[in-house]
Amino acid sequence: MNWRNITRKNIFYLTLAASIIAGFLLLFIEIVDELKEEELIHFDESVIKYVQAFISPRLTEFMSVVTFLGSVKWLAFSVLAAAVLLFLFKKRSLAWFMVLSSGLGALFNLLLKWIFKRERPDIRPLIEEQGFSFPSGHSMGSFIFYGSLAYMIIHLAKRKRWKAAWTLMLSSFIIMIGLSRIYLGVHFPSDVIAGFAAGGAWLTIMIIGFRYYEYRKDL
Q1: Which of 68, 95, 141, 203 makes an SS bond possible with 83, Cβ 3.0 to 4.6 Å?
Q2: Dist CA 143 CA 179 (whole Å)
Q3: What is the pTM of this model?
Q4: Which residue has the higher pLDDT, 128 or 173?
Q5: Cα(143)–Cα(176) distance, rounded to whole angstroms?
Q6: CA 145 to CA 122: how far, in whole Å?
Q7: CA nearest neighbour of 129 among 64, 84, 193, 174
Q8: CB-count exposure of residue 126 (10 Å: 0-12, 13-18, 19+)
Q9: Is 32 buried (19+), middle (13-18) or exposed (0-12) by CB count in 10 A?
Q10: Is the distance from CB of 194 to CB of 113 less than 8 angstroms?
Q11: What is each CA distance from 35 to 44, 47, 194, 202, in whole angstroms?
Q12: CA distance linking residue 32 with residue 130, whole number of Å
């Protein structure tokens, strides 16, 4: 075993992970700093008006289905189903990774909403939602779950084509879910971006924890 090579590899991945976390956190902090500034308010209202200019009965029906894919009920069911399958295939570490990343991430989102207490937009809401707006729970939850699912596939799949195809599809899910929240008028665009940023930082931290656990287990 070449300790020098292992150390360099670990340093590279830790530096990369730290950079990703820092990027997500800086984006989130920047949005928080601008929450009550006129510039952000103008940005939010402009994006909502642009997106809602495409409102139609069929598109609203489609967006309602898309937004369901980021709902608490659907994500809870999906996490449970994924965990059960992973346990059956004796991938216990990945099962716990899925459960803890999404479960603790949901609690983290509730904490952030309680801290910032931002009211939801009142620009033509197409559905009714309860609770605070910032950051978007759908956006943060979908980033964590579908992101962890993509990581799991990358971790297990052998063919690069499968890895790329699934990552692209799951990334599209995340973006569409965020867009659906703006279209339906229940979140400001800054809520969605902040949800992605918080979810991205949280997921990266959980991946680091999982990799560290796997590394320690193999020692």
Answers
A1: 95
A2: 13
A3: 0.89
A4: 173
A5: 11
A6: 29
A7: 64
A8: middle
A9: middle
A10: no
A11: 10, 15, 11, 21
A12: 21
For 106, the token pair is 């949901």
Residue 86 in contact with residue 94, Cβ under 8 Å? yes
pLDDT value at position 33? 85
Residue type, 186: V
More confident residue, 9 or 5: 9
Tokens 């059956």 map to which residue? Answer: 88
User: CA dist 183 to 3, 45, 79, 204, Å?
Assistant: 52, 12, 26, 28
What is the Cα–Cα distance from 78 to 124, expressed in whole angstroms? 31
CA distances from 202 to 4, 53, 86, 141, 165 (A): 30, 33, 22, 10, 24
DSSP state letters, 118-184: PPPP-S--SS---S--SS-HHHHHHHHHHHHHHHHHHHH---HHHHHHHHHHHHHHHHHHHHHHHHT
Q: How many CB atoms lie within 10 A of CB 108?
A: 17
Alpha-carbon separation of residue 139 from 6, 7, 189 (angstroms): 36, 36, 10
List, as one string, the DSSP characters of 71-106. Answer: SHHHHHHHHHHHHHHHHHTT-HHHHHHHHHHHHHHH
Please report the pLDDT score of residue 55 as a whole number: 92
CB contact at 8 A, 194 and 167: no
